[in-house]
Specification:
The protein has helices at residues 27-38, 41-53, 60-85, 89-96, 101-131, 141-149, 167-185, 188-215, 220-228, 238-252, 258-264, 272-305, 317-331, 335-369, 373-392, 397-427, 431-441, 449-476, 483-506, 524-531. The protein is an all-alpha fold and 536 residues long. The chain has one domain (27-508): Amino acid/polyamine transporter I. Mean pLDDT is 89; it is low at 4-13.
Length: 536
Amino acid sequence: MTDSSAPPSSPKTSPQPGAQRETWSSQAGFLLAAIGSAIGLGNIWRFPGVAYQNGGGAFLIPYIVALLAAGVSFLLLDYALGHRYRGAAPTVFRRISRRAEILGWFKVGVSFVILTYYAVIVAWAARYALFSLNFAWGDNTADFFVKDFLGGGNPASANELSFKVVWGVFLPLALLWVVVIAILALGVQKGLERANKIFIPLLTVLFGAVVIRAVTLPGAAEGLNAFFTPEWGSLTDGKVWIAAFSQIFYSLSIAFGIMVTYASYLPKRADLGGSGFVAAFANSSFELLAGIGVFAALGFMANTQGVPVAELQGITGVSLSFISFPTIISMMPGGHLFGFLFFTSLVLAGLTSLMSLLQVVSAGFQDKFGWSGRFSALVVGIPSAVISTMLFATNSGLNTLDVVDKYINEVGVVLCAISTAVLVTVLHPRLGHLRRHLNVLSTIKIGKWWDLMVGFVVPAALAGMFAQTVIDLIKNGYGEYPGWYTTGFGWGSIILAALIGYVMTLTSWRTDVDDFKTMPLPKAHDNQKAAKGGRK
C-alpha cells in the first residue's frame, strides 16, 4: 500500500481495528501514561550505577546527546507510527507492508518476555516495603535476599535448575497479576489512564520524600560528589557512549511497541511533538533525581563504614535495591519510614511500566481478532501470569531473570529498534510522511535533522552496539552461567519472541486491517514552511 491511499479491502466482516478505537480522555492523560511507562525500575536502580561506572558527571554529556539524538527522535518515530496508522504494533507495520507485520509481532513477543520477569521484581519490592517496617532482613542483607527470601540462587547454582515454588514470592506475584489484569480489563480511560493519574503523582511525592531524606544524611555530600564528579577522559571511550544510548532506550520504553500502542489511542488532533519532548525530559529528570537520592544514600553508607564510595559494591541493578539499600535503611535514623517509602516507590514505578507492557500484547490481539479489551486482558494476562509465576517465583527465579533480562534487552530490544529504522528508511521509506504528520500536529516543528537521526545516525550507533554485544555473548557467554543456561533462557527468549512473531503473522486476521486510509497531509513544501515557523 502507499502511504496516502488505502489498499483493497480484505474479505472480512469484522470492523477494522481503530474504527471505534478507544482514546485517552485528554492530552494530559496520555502524557501521564507515557511518563508512567517510561519511569520504571531502570530509572531508580539502573541509571545511577551506569552513570557512576561510566565517568560520573562526565556521563551526563553523552547521556544528554543520546537523549536528544536517539531518545527524542525514536520516541517521536513511535508516536508518529502509532498515531498515523492507528493501531497496535502488528497493525501499524502491516499497514506499512504486509511483510512487515512480523516485526510488529516480534515487538509484541519482546514485550511479553519482559513483562513475565518484570512483574516479579515489583512483587519483591512489595514484600520489601513490608520487610522495612521491622528490618526483617537482619544483619546480612545479601544472605537474606538470596537464601532466605528467594530460597537460593546464584550463578554457581545455575547448574541445577529448580522449579520449587517460593511461596513468599508466589503469593504477592499472583496478587500483583490480579491487580494489573483488572486495570487493563477496565480499558484505556477507566483503567490505564485513571491508574496513572493516581500512581504517577503519588510516585513523585513518595520518591521526592526519599530524596529529601537521603540528602540530609551524614556523608551525603561525598556520595553526590562521587556521582557528579566528571572523569573527562571517559568521553573518548566508545563503551561510555554505548552505555548512554543503551540507558536511553532502556528507560524511555521505545522501539518495542509501547509508545506505538499508546499513541494509537490519541485523538486525531493531538500535539505529538510537544508530548514527546515533555515525556522524554520528564523521564530523564526523574532519572537525575533518582541518581541524587541513591548516591546520597550510598554516601551515608560509605561514611558509616569508613570507606570511600568507590569501594562500595552493588551500586546498580538488583543488588542495589535488595542488598545495598536494606543495609543503608538499617543504619539510618528513621530507616523504617525511609525503607517503606523507597520500596513503595519501586512498586509504583514498576507497576506503571508493567501495565504498559501488558497493554502492548493485549492491544495486538484486540486488533487481530476483534476482541474486547476486557476479554483480551484475560486471555493474554492469565497465561502471562502463569508463566511468570512458574519461572520466576521459584528457587531458580533470580538466575533465570538475570539471564533473560540481559539477552532480551541488549539483543531483542536493540534489534527491534534497528529493524524499525531500516524498514521506514530503506525498505518502505516513510520518514518524509511521518515527519510531515508530526509537524501537522505539533507545536514544536521537526526539521530534516530528524530524518538523519532516525535513518542513519541512531541505527548506525545501535548496530555497532548490537554487533559488539552479540559477538561478546557468543564468544564469552554471560557471567558465570553455564552455556546450557544462557542458551536456553537467554537465546531462548529471543527465539520465543521470534516464534511469536512468525506464528501470529501466519494467523488469519478477523478484522479489516487493510481497509484503512491514513490522514491526508499537506504538500511537502507547505510543511517545510511550517517547520521554519510559518503557518501550517
